[in-house]
């Protein structure tokens, strides 16, 4: 099993999403003999933002200029990593109600016409179709506040999980059942609710690993 481990918390050693991801990988390695992990730390090595050369190159039908190719190099590398992976892990904090800028920059780099999606107006109102298929995504989140879930008091503020769900098809995660999410809440309150949210999240990891192994 090949795993791409994408991390985006700037808190490094103290990060809950990094701890959740590490615990998941640790348990997974005890269940699977052959686990190959590709590490992608977006904080240690931030993705570049897309540029005019990037856009011109991505949509070009001619041979790319040197500048266009250079602008697309990192995107090509990220897409190769996704293609090679069976399972993608994303560890992401909630920053200002959405994903960290480095993670958004990574999504911008990997959404590429004819590489991760195709576009055809003959398909009518939904011209976009994914190119990659059959991947699984495990999403570990953490937030300072709480109640962002469906029907929760802060549902309208959650631009993190719904955003990633909308972009998951670029990763080849097509089936909703192939996206697993474990989140911790209340981090800023540092109270009993946070402790139990944290304990529940770590406890759910073992079940999640079993679920993925059974599949
Ligand atoms: C720059 C920054 C912005 C944040 N914005 C939010 C926010 O909008 N909503 C929220 O609930 N928590 C917010 N938080 C709290 C984090 O989501 C929380 O600390 C979480 O545990 C971070 O994940 P990590 O432990 O993996 O770093 C923010 C934290 C930081 C550092």
Task: Tell me what the structure shows.
This protein has 215 residues and is α/β, with parallel strands linked by helices. The chain has one domain: Rossmann fold. The protein is 39% helix and 18% strand. The protein has 6 helices and 7 strands. The protein has helices at 16-31, 52-59, 66-84, 101-110, 161-167, 192-214; strands spanning 2-7, 36-41, 87-93, 117-119, 128-130, 136-142, 179-184. It has a 5-stranded parallel beta sheet, with helices on both faces. It is globular. The model has no long low-confidence stretch (mean pLDDT 97). It binds flavin mononucleotide. The site of flavin mononucleotide (FMN) has 17 residues, from helix 1. Flavin mononucleotide is lined by residues 9, 11, 15-18, 93-97, 142-145, 187-188.
Strand content: 15-25%
CA radius of gyration is: 18 Å
Low-pLDDT parts are none
Sketch the topology as an H/E string, one letter per element. Answer: EHEHHEHEEEHEH
User: What's the name of the CATH homologous superfamily?
Assistant: Flavodoxin domain
Shape: globular
Could you say which structural class the secondary elements and strand pairing correspond to? alpha/beta
Domain module tally = 1
CATH architecture: 3-Layer(aba) Sandwich
Number of helical segments with 4 or more residues: 6
Q: In CATH, what is the class? A: Alpha Beta
**How much helical structure, as a percent, in the residues?**
25-40%
Unique ligands: flavin mononucleotide
Strand order, largest beta sheet: 2-1-3-6-7
- Give the N-terminus to C-terminus distance in angstroms: 13 Å
Mean pLDDT: 97
- The count of strands amounts to 7
- The CATH topology corresponds to Rossmann fold
């Amino acid at each position: 099993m090949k795993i791409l481990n994408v991390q985006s918390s700037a808190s490094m050693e103290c990060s809950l999403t990094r701890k959740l991801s590490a615990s998941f990988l640790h348990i997974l390695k005890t269940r699977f003999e052959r686990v190959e992990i590709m590490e992608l730390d977006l904080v240690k090595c931030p993705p570049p933002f897309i540029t005019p050369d990037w856009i011109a190159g991505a949509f070009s039908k001619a041979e790319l200029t040197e500048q266009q190719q250079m602008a697309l190099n990192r995107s090509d590398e990220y897409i190769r990593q996704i293609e090679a992976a069976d399972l993608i892990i994303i560890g992401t904090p909630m920053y200002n109600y959405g994903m960290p800028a480095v993670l958004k920059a990574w999504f911008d780099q990997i959404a590429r016409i004819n590489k991760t999606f195709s576009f055809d107006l003959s398909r009518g109102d939904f011209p976009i179709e994914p190119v990659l298929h059959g991947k699984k995504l495990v999403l570990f989140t953490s937030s300072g506040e709480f109640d962002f879930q469906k029907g929760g008091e802060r549902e309208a503020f959650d631009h993190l999980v719904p955003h990633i769900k909308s972009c998951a098809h670029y990763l080849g995660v097509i089936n909703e059942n192939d996206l697993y999410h474990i989140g911790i809440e209340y981090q800023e309150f540092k109270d009993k609710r946070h402790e139990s949210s944290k304990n529940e999240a770590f406890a759910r990891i073992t079940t999640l690993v079993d679920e993925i192994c059974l599949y």
